[in-house]
Amino acid sequence: MASFVFSVIVVLCCVSSFILVNTLGIRRPYNGNETKQLRFDGKKGEFRVLQVADMHYADGKKTPCEDVLPNQVAHCTDLNTSAFINRMIQAEKPDLIVFTGDNIFGFDAADAAASMNAAFAPAISSKIPWAAVLGNHDQESTLSREGVMNHIVGMRHTLSQVNPFDVDVIDGFGNYNLEVHGVEGSSFMNKSILNLYFLDSGDYSTVPSIPGYGWIKPSQQFWFQQTSKKLQKMSKAPGLAYFHIPLPEYAYFDSSNFTGVRQEGISSASVNSGFFTTLAGAGDVKAVFTGHDHINDFCGKLTGIHLCYGGGFGYHAYGKAGWSRRARMVVVSLEKGSHDDWGAVKSIKTWKRLDDENLTAIDAQVLWSRRPSGNRRKKPIHRV
């Protein structure tokens, strides 16, 4: 009888813990690691994000590169992709690394888990927090799409999630958000002053009458709307969104209204799911970052939101011979408070670095800046 009572108590405790975790939204640790709270740096008042788009990793040194001139990179393999990540980490010292899909190229990966382990190894060894979403090629090896995301969230130092803990039904795998709190010791230390959204843009359409790539579904958009609304009640923080397949609105730009280059068509879904309208309606997301189209690397502004490509990163991905692989940096800076402490977000800037001898930085631009209170536009005076 005593053992039965003890067993009942243990079960009740486990159930209570599960309810507490899900009710309070506590982020459960993965693989024995405590989940790191993202926070702005107290010395420079910055938060730095490195975007890695389309690694297309396969089998390491056995995997040849694509679209590389013989005099551009000698004996090129997947290892050149790993070397590029290491160089970017050393040069930019990011606070977060974001992988925006097609992390592995499933058709050429003999073992999906082994390929992912190798692909994410530079981020893991750096001990820098990292997050990932899926592209359209990640599930084409030995693991399903869900299996790939499950493997990712079990890796060291990742903040990735399969899906939100408190949502029962949502399409895809890899929809989640991360909060970035203010500087330790500042008045914003317990508030998220930068919100990051990650979504699964799918792989291919499963609707017979709709050809082409996948899209962000209504269930995901509803989750985003509810999450954005909840976060904005706590603080009017700007947001950034990361996913793989570009929105149809990326096609609205040409060389007259973007920074960077457009060297191929916009490979969005063949239908418009309305997610750009959802983003604009929420009001907090200032920029969207995708991959998928490797030789596009532009940023253009539409209805107050910048739509940006990361630019092709991986050497086993198609590219353009003689056109350097590249990565995108985003640096979010804080304003100084009245008492010389760090305040809310002041600006969001971006640039790209090329994988050349000097890691050349190009196309620096301001994506968003907070208008100083003294420069607010005055209402017009209507004289009688």
Automatic annotation (TrEMBL):
The name this protein goes by in its record: Calcineurin-like phosphoesterase domain-containing protein
Alphabetical list of Gene3D superfamilies matching this protein: 3.60.21.10
Species annotation: Deinandra increscens subsp. villosa
Record SUPFAM superfamilies: Metallo-dependent phosphatases (SSF56300)
Domain Calcineurin-like phosphoesterase: 47-295
This protein's record includes keyword Plastid: no
Subcellular location, record wording: Secreted
A single cellular component GO annotation: cytoplasm
Signal peptide: 1-23
Record's keyword terms, sorted: Glycoprotein, Iron, Metal-binding, Secreted, Signal, Zinc
Protein family per UniProt: Belongs to the metallophosphoesterase superfamily. Purple acid phosphatase family.
